[in-house]
Amino acid sequence: SKQAQLMEVLKKEVRAMLIAAKAGLTPEQLEEQYMAMVCKPLPLHDLGFQSTLELVTQMPEVVRICSKNGTLILKAIADDSTKGIAKLVANQKVKARKASKKAATKANAPFPTKNSKNPQSFQTLSAGTPVLPATVKAELQDLLSSSPLLLADLGRAFLRRFGRAFQYRQYGFLSVFEVLRSMADSIAVEQTKAGSLLVLRKYLARTIEQKEVPQACAAEMPPLEPICETDSFHQAAHLVGLEPVQTQAVDLGNHLEQVMHDETSECHLPFIPLQHQGSEQFPSTPEIPPDAVQDRRLCSLPPLKRRCLVGVIVEFVVSPSQFYIHICSTETSSKLQDLMFEMRHVYSHKVASDKYIMPESAVRPGQLCCVVVSTWWYRVIIHRVINDQEVEVFYADYGHLQTVQKSSLRFLKWHYLKLPAQAIPCSLAWVKPVEGTWSSAAILLFKHLCRFKEFVGIVDEYVDGVLYLFLCDTSTKEDVYFHSVLRDMGYADICGENIPSQEFEELNPSALYIQPSGKQGNAEVVEPDLCLQQDSQDADSEIANLKLDGAEL
């Protein structure tokens, strides 16, 4: 029956999830991880169960139910085909992690040839500590951007701001202090009588500058949305001790007047509406701003050299033959975070957001723009128009497709073109699925292997713009090569060569919409000279006064 088939598939998936969790999972955590991995809830009602606990009690050969300090913990019972994986997980280090090897050792590491009979005989590699996803780093920085926070209040503040608990363990960290050490370049920990105080380093810098800059009144603050720099606005906001929470604006032809409202500010100014001289009916569709991207594409990152070793984070997985990675480096991570912060600061204000609304004629496949998701803005390319309200977009920095509302789209400013698309399309080198296509169990296992860690990637080659590389997890006593795990589990064959990915052949949004870095006709992104593009506008308008004279952003 269909129920019996569904139950057998579910047993494999639940066993794989519990094996990957060394300490086991609570029923609630199992529900969360299943949703995260399979993108749909556990099929309880389809199988006739009322709860997750009732479901797992019907899997005695798969799940062992334990109790720890009054909490129910679910642990996996390995079968013959998964005992090897269970052993690898059991060997994971708890109190210490491998130290990174010297750069010279990495540089001299032997690289396997395609005639090698044992791909597992690679030189032992090592990676750093776990890393937080870029969005979580940005959330922590945002949480501390307005004021410092006591460590004891971090959990409650994170839950209050983002509506979920800060579950750092799922990213591979053993304590909050490990998380803070990984973000030492942006978050400082100061000891006070009240306890450990978390301070954003940028906040410290602003505090030092504040002592040297005379106090300003709100009326002297710079415009809400500078053309290139947003830090000046937020610095001034901190100088007068207010957080911009509401903006009211009056459209005076080409002039914008705005007053910041803050209930706690002593410099609070009332909003006084100004009357139009000779009221006119304004067009329903505003003119497209001259710094809005209309016919440009993002460029890709430069190709990696063959045989080089790089730290990587797997951002999005379709299968072992189709996934996207980020390169781990302080420079690239900070640039992406800075971009996200600046886009949030600019587009979160109604004046700027309304200015970059896209007319219907601009909502078309291939258009580069940005979209808001849970208060954060992301660079996307429209892949297809679904209906009058929805479009499917490709996230250039993360690699996935998603359906969003047209109303959540905005034109991308030219300034945000400079950073190359950060997501790199990849396939696992030297493997092919045993059954012709990857089974759901193989995909689920690969997703678990890739979760929330920094891995060592060994570059093999590029095929049709797709990077083929080996992945190695070095956080265990024995280095784990992903292609070997898939082979040992019976999901993959080692073929000694790279077979073009069927999934990427069917659809590769990066190839469609991202310009290869070596073929970029004009690598330097320069904002257009606004004074040349606005001859038809009033020479006294505010925007015309902000011309950049062709300066490079």
Write the SSE topology.
Elements: H1 2-20, H2 27-38, H3 52-56, E1 63-68, E2 71-76, H4 83-90, H5 103-107, H6 134-144, E3 149-150, H7 154-162, H8 176-182, E4 187-192, E5 195-200, H9 201-212, H10 231-239, E6 246-252, E7 255-261, E8 309-319, E9 322-327, H11 330-347, H12 350-355, E10 368-373, E11 376-385, E12 390-395, E13 401-405, E14 409-411, E15 424-428, E16 431-433, H13 440-449, E17 455-463, E18 466-473, E19 480-481, H14 482-488, E20 492-494, H15 502-506, H16 509-513, H17 530-533
Parallel strand pairs: 15-18
Antiparallel strand pairs: 1-2, 3-5, 4-5, 6-7, 8-9, 8-17, 9-15, 10-11, 10-14, 11-12, 12-13, 16-20, 17-18, 18-19
Helix pairs in contact: 1-13, 6-11
Region (Disordered): 99-124
Family: Belongs to the TDRD5 family.
Subcellular location: Cytoplasm
